[in-house]
TrEMBL record:
<dbReference type="GO" id="GO:0005886">
    <property type="term" value="C:plasma membrane"/>
</dbReference>
<feature type="transmembrane region" description="Helical">
    <location>
        <begin position="36"/>
        <end position="58"/>
    </location>
</feature>
<dbReference type="GO" id="GO:0022010">
    <property type="term" value="P:central nervous system myelination"/>
</dbReference>
<feature type="transmembrane region" description="Helical">
    <location>
        <begin position="78"/>
        <end position="100"/>
    </location>
</feature>
<dbReference type="InterPro" id="IPR001614">
    <property type="entry name" value="Myelin_PLP"/>
</dbReference>
<keyword id="KW-1015">Disulfide bond</keyword>
<keyword id="KW-0812">Transmembrane</keyword>
<feature type="transmembrane region" description="Helical">
    <location>
        <begin position="257"/>
        <end position="281"/>
    </location>
</feature>
<keyword id="KW-0472">Membrane</keyword>
<keyword id="KW-0564">Palmitate</keyword>
<dbReference type="InterPro" id="IPR018237">
    <property type="entry name" value="Myelin_PLP_CS"/>
</dbReference>
<keyword id="KW-1133">Transmembrane helix</keyword>
<dbReference type="GO" id="GO:0042759">
    <property type="term" value="P:long-chain fatty acid biosynthetic process"/>
</dbReference>
<dbReference type="GO" id="GO:0006954">
    <property type="term" value="P:inflammatory response"/>
</dbReference>
<dbReference type="GO" id="GO:0019911">
    <property type="term" value="F:structural constituent of myelin sheath"/>
</dbReference>
<keyword id="KW-1003">Cell membrane</keyword>
<feature type="transmembrane region" description="Helical">
    <location>
        <begin position="173"/>
        <end position="196"/>
    </location>
</feature>
Length: 295
């Protein structure tokens, strides 16, 4: 009989704990910063697309240059060094953005929970209370006994809140990073423009009736874009030779990889703008309410 009642109590406690867990998850979903979640997804997707496709596109460009546009290694030695340097920068960019995106997402949870607690949109959970304690100036525990009874998860979140508690700095860093990424976005359009011009020239060669120029005068000159020095030989490819290059799978793949990298840069830029708008709004609300001057 005692064993049966004990089993019943354990079952009841298990059900109650599961219900509390479901309630906690539901409250967290209600208080989730959806703008930051969308921005984080865009950031990870855009950075992965930009870095992965950009790395392979640079490798393809290196092969195209050394195969068709120059026979002297010294002509494109500097270009290869630049390409390798950009590839190492891509590794660092990917690592930085994945880390910074995670920090911005945590900051989004942090400030959004504080703002919604101010407006009373939802009741915070244990973690929410710990995170927003340094923002909203929550009540401290009464005496040492109250402090000892504080939940360990709440204390961990409270420490995390103190660490993340500078949204004004996050806004400033994100703003500066957005300006820098605008330049990256503009630079990623340059190879797309070069390859598109080359592809357009090839289309004119393939369909000579659409142009009045002779096929032999239609060329792709890598020197005019600064890819090769002016003394590089041959430096340009014309006519049917250029058309044969455009038909290769290597050229087509590199062209599409640069387009994908450009799209990834655009997605990353949109995510940074979303982060900046959301973080600025949360910080402005908290500061307006007199609770965001220092976190």
């Amino acid at each position: 009989m005692k064993a049966g009642s004990l089993l019943k109590n354990l079952t009841t406690r298990t059900i109650l704990s599961k219900l509390c867990l479901l309630e906690c998850c539901a409250r967290c979903l209600v208080g989730a910063p959806f703008a930051s979640l969308v921005a984080t997804g865009l950031c990870f997707f855009g950075v992965a697309l930009f870095c992965g496709c950009g790395h392979e596109a640079l490798t393809g460009t290196e092969k195209l240059i050394e195969t068709y546009f120059s026979k002297n290694y010294q002509d494109y030695e500097y270009l290869i060094n630049v390409i390798h340097a950009f590839q190492y920068v891509i590794y660092g960019t990917a690592s930085f953005f994945f880390l910074y995106g995670a920090l911005l997402l945590a900051e989004g949870f942090y400030t959004t929970g504080a703002v919604r607690q101010i407006f009373g949109d939802y009741k915070t959970t244990i973690c929410g209370k710990g995170l927003s304690a340094t923002v909203t100036g929550g009540q401290k525990g009464r005496g040492s006994r109250g402090q000892h009874q504080a939940h360990s998860l709440e204390r961990v979140c409270h420490c995390l809140g103190k660490w993340l508690g500078h949204p004004d700095k996050f806004v400033g860093i994100t703003y500066a990073l957005t300006i820098v990424w605008l330049l990256v976005f503009a630079c990623s359009a340059v190879p797309v423009y070069i390859y598109f011009n080359t592809w357009t020239t090839c289309q004119s060669i393939a369909f000579p009736s659409k142009t009045s120029a002779s096929i032999g005068s239609l060329c792709a000159d890598a020197r005019m874009y600064g890819v090769l020095p002016w003394n590089a030989f041959p430096g340009k490819v014309c006519g049917s030779n250029l058309l044969s290059i455009c038909k290769t799978a290597e050229f087509q793949m590199t062209f599409h990889l640069f387009i994908a990298a450009f799209v990834g840069a655009a997605a990353t830029l949109v995510s940074l703008l979303t982060f900046m708008i959301a973080a600025t709004y949360n910080f402005a609300v908290l500061k307006l309410m007199g609770r965001g001057t220092k976190f």
